[in-house]
Amino acid sequence: MALTDINAKSLETTVAKLKADYPDVEVKAIEMDVGVEEQVEKSIADTVSAFGRIDFAVNNAGIGGLLVPTPELPTSEWMKVQNINVNVRSNSTGGAKQH
Ligand SMILES: NC(=O)c1ccc[n+]([C@@H]2O[C@H](COP(=O)([O-])OP(=O)(O)OC[C@H]3O[C@@H](n4cnc5c(N)ncnc54)[C@H](O)[C@@H]3O)[C@@H](O)[C@H]2O)c1
Q1: For labeling, which of 23, 41, 54, 82 is most exposed (least CB within 10 Å)?
Q2: What is the 34 CA–ligand 1 centroid distance (Å)?
C-alpha cells in the first residue's frame, strides 16, 4: 500500500499505525502535493516501481479553505480549494489508471 500526503508528520503517524496494526502489509509513504502535477506523476511512478502495479487509487486529499462569508473569500483561496478538491482528482486518477 502506498500512502501519500502533503503533511509529513501525519503521514508518518498514519504509516506507523498501519504498520503496528497490519505488520504483514508493506506500506510505502510518499510525501507529495496533489496540486503539483510532477509530484503526482512521481508518486505514481514510485508506487509502480515499488509494487509493480496499481490495483486501485483513492483520491481523498482535501482542504476546506478559509471559513469566511463567500463575498470575503479571496479569489486565490477559492481557486486553491477548487484545484485541490476538484481538479486534481481527475488528474491523479487518470495517471494511476494507466497502471
Ligand atoms: N470528513 C467528513 O465528514 C467530510 C464530509 C464531506 C466532505 N469531506 C471532504 O473530504 C475531503 C477530505 O476530508 P477529511 O475529513 O478526510 O479531511 P482531513 O483533513 O482529515 O484529510 C485530508 C488530508 O488531505 C491532505 N492534504 C491536503 N492538501 C493536500 C495536498 N495538496 N496534497 C496532498 N495531501 C493533501 C491533508 O494533509 C490531510 O491528511 C475534504 O475535501 C472535505 O471537505 C469530508
Answers
A1: 23
A2: 12
2-97 belongs to CATH 1.10.8.1310 = no
> Could you tell me the pTM of the whole model?
0.86
Tell me the per-residue pLDDT of 72-83, one tens digit each, with 9 for 90 and over: 999 999 999 999
- N residues, the chain: 99
Using N-to-C axis directions, what is the helix angle for 37-51 and 88-97, rounded to 10°? Answer: 30
C-alpha cell at 13: 503517524
Domain layout of the chain by residue ranges: 2-97
Helix H or strand E segment including 28: strand 28-31
Q: Ligand 1, closest atom to CA 34? A: 32
Task: Quote the cell numbers at residue 4.
Answer: 501519500
CA of 80 to the centre of ligand 1 (A): 14
